[in-house]
Write a structure and sequence with these properties.
Order of helices and strands: EHEHEHHHEEHHHEEEEEEE
Pfam families: Metallophos
Number of helices: 8
CATH architecture: 4-Layer Sandwich
Strand order of the largest sheet: 3-2-1-11-12
Shape: globular
Structural class: alpha/beta
Distance between the termini: 28 Å
InterPro entries: ApaH, Calcineurin-like_PHP, Metallo-depent_PP-like
Oligomer: single chain
Largest sheet: 5 strands, mixed
Bound molecules: manganese (II) ion
CATH class: Alpha Beta
Mean pLDDT: 97
Low-confidence stretches: none
CATH superfamily: Metallo-dependent phosphatases
Radius of gyration: 17 Å
CATH topology: Purple Acid Phosphatase, chain A, domain 2
Function: Hydrolyzes diadenosine 5',5'''-P1,P4-tetraphosphate to yield ADP.
Strand content: 15-25%
Catalytic activity: P(1),P(4)-bis(5'-adenosyl) tetraphosphate + H2O = 2 ADP + 2 H(+)
Family: Belongs to the Ap4A hydrolase family.
Length: 268
């Protein structure tokens, strides 16, 4: 049994299937983990979610990305579809509410193996992986329980942008969502939301999260994340693995095998 971690799928079902086949993924033995943003910009969001759900919980798990959370909010009428998203066939399908209930049980951070940590955006530099997993559980409790609507209504916003252990309620949950699903650059541990480019061409005062000193991060940990297509897999750190390589933008989809440390990719 092998564990594979796939980058942002973004509704590109055919690309996903080709990639899994090329890597030798065995749906009866292996487990696929996803870094989130399963759906949205690509043409086959419905096919993607049905396939992943059908793998079953022994063979698939995912963290939620910003697009996945946005889909859950839209399903509850809290947010409007974005014109660039191709979600109509999914949202009209008879299984839509069932798929949304399933997605709503997913976490924002996971530990697929002893040394490994997955979230959509990465690890905020004031947190250990253990702390991020605990904070993810706080969000999951709000997202899957009776407070779901209240949580979704208060989820959007860019403040607070710096972590503080004393944060409570909506502000605390909003920060955790933003750090685990939207983070790219920081300025003195403050999240910055506008800049999406490669670090080489970013404003000087901004630091990618993975280059911000994190005294809580143990040296043997391996962080896998997506969300940042313009990195194209480059972090210059073998323990920080960027898996969003922009398949939906005509580039490639990436898949990492935890046991063999092999990286597979599928060209768009
Ligand atoms: Mn994203």
């Amino acid at each position: 049994m092998k564990n594979y971690v796939v980058g942002d799928i973004q509704g590109c079902y055919k690309g996903l299937r080709k990639l899994l086949q090329a890597a030798g993924f065995n749906a009866k033995k292996d487990k696929l983990w996803a870094v989130g943003d399963l759906i949205a910009r690509g043409p086959e969001s419905l096919e993607t979610l049905k396939f992943l759900n059908d793998l079953g919980s022994d063979h698939f798990d995912t963290v939620l990305g910003n697009h996945d959370l946005h889909l859950i909010a839209m399903a509850h009428g809290i947010s409007d579809p974005k014109p660039v998203d191709k979600l109509a066939p999914l949202m009209k399908h008879k299984s839509f509410s069932e798929l949304i209930d399933w997605l709503s049980t997913k976490k924002l951070a996971l530990k697929p193996a002893k040394r490994h940590f997955i979230s959509h955006a990465g690890l905020y530099p004031m947190w250990s992986t253990k702390k991020a997993l605990a904070l993810s559980d706080e969000v999951s409790e709000a997202l899957s329980g009776s407070k779901q609507l209240k949580f979704l209504k208060n989820m959007y916003g860019n403040t607070p942008n710096v972590w503080n252990d004393s944060l409570e309620g909506n502000e605390r949950l909003r920060f955790v969502v933003n750090a685990l699903t939207r983070m790219r650059f920081l300025s003195d541990n403050a999240l910055e939301f506008k800049t999406k480019c490669h670090p080489n061409v970013a404003p000087e005062e901004l630091t990618p999260w993975y280059l911000s000193p994190n005294p809580k991060l143990k040296k043997n940990k391996i962080i896998l994340f997506g969300h940042w297509a313009s990195l194209m897999g480059e972090t210059n750190n073998e323990n920080i693995i960027a898996l969003d390589t922009g398949f939906v933008w005509g580039k490639r989809m990436s898949l990492y095998c935890i046991e063999s440390k092999q990286l597979f990719s599928q060209q768009a």
